Amino acid sequence: MAMECGSEAHTIGVEGIWRRQLGLLDPRKFARRIGGSEGIIKRMSLYAKLDGHDGCVNTVQFNPTGDLLVTGSDDRQVIFWEWAAKAKRFSYPSGHSDNVFQARIMPFTDDRSVITCAADGQVRHGLILENGLVDTKRLAKHQGRVHKLAIEPGSPHIFYSCGEDGVVQHFDLRSHSAARLFSCSSLSENKQYHSNVRLNAIVIDPRNPNYFAVGGFDEYARVYDIRSSPLDSPVNTFSPNHLIGNDSVHITGLAYSATSELLVSYNDELIYLFQKNMGMGPNPKSLSAEKLHELDQPQVYVGHRNARTVKGVNFFGPNDEYVVSGSDCGRIFIWKKKGGQLLWLMVGDKHVVNCLEPHPCVTILATSGLEKNVKLWAPIAEAPIPLPDNAEQIMEANRQGREDRSRITVTPDVIMHVLRLQRRQAMVYIERNARTDFDSDGEAEEDAYILRLFGSDASSDEGASANPKECTIS
What we know:
By secondary structure, the chain is α+β, with helices and mostly antiparallel strands. It has 7 helices and 28 strands. The strands form 7 sheets. It has a 4-stranded antiparallel β-sheet, with no helix packed on it. A 4-stranded antiparallel β-sheet has the order 2-3-4-5, with no helix packed on it. A hairpin with a 4-residue loop joins strand 19 and strand 20. The longest helix is centred in the last third of the chain and has 21 residues, at 412-432.
């Protein structure tokens, strides 16, 4: 593969090869430097499409060694893929009664222990037996949907869940039981109104697994210490200053870097990167305006749109050099972590990209959205791929969509109700036009329908999937 042009090529390419050949640079360090170079990222191109699900794919996760990919879908199936061979190894019914939102392989279990969560509120454990059958058991149930699970780094037994009921639970597979840790409480001064915060995301600090962060239906990412007593009080909180007191935003995705940086993605807002020193402490309401403005502000990443679904966000690169997100415009965005420059922009779905999972060892990215397949991206292009000519127009359209929607003051519950109405309308349309091209005609009617409901921002719908019954909008 040709090296990238410019000074980076000289530093990483020519000098790096020379140092490696002389034994002055460890081959693993050389591979990580090359894998994280901009020239490699700009060569990312579609490697494979994995078809096998019969519904939207809501979760993509590599196993710890990276040779397998596990996926879950609205079809309630869990599929194991040998992704390098572009082949399905096997699948099994998850046991859930509703859309699977996450499926993860526990480390150091010979890839036989799988945890899942779903829209039915259940957290389940799947154990792959020697005869190839899978024994699935319900471990716990939340009152509401469960979007994310967080595995304690390196542990084959311990993980956490969070749900839309605001509850965080702790699991130890050796005891086959769950412990309710706490309900996430509102930091609002009016404690009697929406006292529990519905949660969408939970992540564990890889540097210190005693710390974990949650995010949901308010502006604050909260960090907790499992050793604290009482546990229901955060040890730190994070939010951009301009979002404090904004009742129209909420968090859809969180990610920790290897150095404990916290990445936060907001619904129909932007993505922010927080360092530890940017925290507001356990009680941000106690900080004066002067103290808030003295805090360093987070790095921001702009250009995408996050309104239709519960989108994830992630780091990418061997040393977390990049930030990746999907978008309502169906594209994948990759920014440089330092400085926030948009580096790579590619169509990843006909409608919406939700999930992005980096390979644990090499520069490979798995993504999924409202389509029924999984896409794998690898640096296989012969030359760096420039940003599309219309990149500025794409980002401007996304920005305009955010601004238009911000003029509408409605609660998340109202938005969900409208989207359910839209789904039923779309389903009726499909049944009337089963033999027509849905991509061309169906989207136009759906956009017009949402426009009538909201009075603006026709892009706030859930996107037109092949079968609206199979896609859950959150």
